[in-house]
Write a structure and sequence with these properties.
Blueprint lengths: L1 H9 L6 H9 L3 H24 L4 H22 L6 H16 L2
Helix pairs in contact: 1-5, 2-3, 3-4
Length: 102
């Protein structure tokens, strides 16, 4: 889980592909389906990790949704900045406490 959090939050300058896809998906249905598939795959992966640490399936799904929405806000806020390791790990520690209770 920690490795996934580090991967999610360490690279904010990877490009805005999903954000452009989200805008395009408003006009082109096939892109909406593609976006939904990408996002569902990401959340399913997080759900599986939450379940692997023993969470109830419904709770795991809810926490993956919360985590993904947190990520979207994080990305939007920091996409043009270099995030220092201290700030990155502060958020990861907070997420581990709130989502995993550790």
């Amino acid at each position: 889980m920690t490795k996934m959090l580090i991967q999610m939050f360490s690279g904010t300058r990877k490009g805005d592909f999903l954000f452009y896809l989200r805008k395009l998906s408003e006009e082109v249905p096939v892109f909406h389906i593609m976006l939904e598939t990408i996002e569902q795959t990401r959340m399913s992966y997080a759900t599986a990790l939450f379940r692997k640490v023993g969470m109830d399936p419904e709770v795991a799904e809810q926490k993956s949704l919360i985590l993904y929405h947190y990520y979207l806000g994080w990305y939007e806020r920091f996409k043009k900045d270099q995030v220092e390791d201290e700030e990155l790990y502060r958020h990861i520690r907070m997420l581990r406490v709130q989502l995993l209770g550790i």
